[in-house]
Design a protein that fits this description.
Largest sheet: 4 strands, mixed
Family: Belongs to the glutathione peroxidase family.
Structural class: alpha+beta
Organism: Trema orientale (Charcoal tree)
Helix content: 10-25%
Radius of gyration: 15 Å
Distance between the termini: 39 Å
GO molecular function, one term: peroxidase activity
Strand order of the largest sheet: 4-3-5-6
Order of helices and strands: EEEHEHHEEH
CATH topology: Glutaredoxin
Shape: globular
Keywords: Oxidoreductase, Peroxidase
Strand content: 15-25%
InterPro entries: Glutathione_peroxidase, GPX_AS, GPX_CS, Thioredoxin-like_sf, Thioredoxin_domain
CATH architecture: 3-Layer(aba) Sandwich
Length: 170
């Protein structure tokens, strides 16, 4: 059942998502930026290392064209139990996240958020398109095309070279 769903969109920039307060955000606002899109959770064993490293990457590359888009998700052992605003407050207070934290989404199943259908259709993982756990990361180029997908166990700092390459620094 992990087959990739077909999507008509050709770029991540064609999507509109909701911020933590429910306001529409057009991803076309990020044209020309390299995006690291991550499904996050506040109660996961990978939370501390991922949020710490995401903040470090963001602070290092935000002025060079990197944007991190964090989507809280409660699908994996209910590890993001609060509201979207709770998730945003947690990330911004505890980990000094300055990048956007969006509304909670589903990344698998019949109610998968359209942006995640697109991401999964463009880069499947080790065992198909299904997202296995929190902190799955997608690297998207300046034109809105998915470059690579990284599993939970790939630390954000481990993909720094790929980010630099996408930014045109290598």
């Amino acid at each position: 059942m992990g087959a990739a769903q077909s999507v008509s969109e050709k770029s991540i920039h064609e999507f509109t998502v909701k911020d933590a307060r429910g306001k529409d955000v057009e991803l076309s606002n990020y044209k020309g930026k390299v995006l690291l899109i991550v499904n996050v959770a506040s109660k996961c064993g990978f939370t501390d290392s991922n949020y710490t490293q995401l903040t470090e990457l963001y602070n290092k590359y935000k002025d060079k064209g990197l944007e991190i888009l964090a989507f809280p998700c409660n699908q994996f052992l209910k590890q993001e139990p609060g509201t979207s605003e709770d998730a945003e407050k947690f990330a911004c207070t505890r980990y000094k996240a300055e990048y956007p934290i969006f509304q909670k989404v589903r990344v698998n199943g019949p109610d998968t958020a359209p942006v995640y259908k697109f991401l999964k259709a463009n880069k499947s993982g080790f065992l198909g398109s299904r997202i296995k756990w929190n902190f799955t990361k997608f690297l998207v180029d300046k034109d809105g095309q998915v470059i690579e997908r990284y599993g939970t166990s790939t630390a954000p700092l481990a993909i720094e070279d790929d980010i630099k390459k996408a930014l045109g620094e290598v």
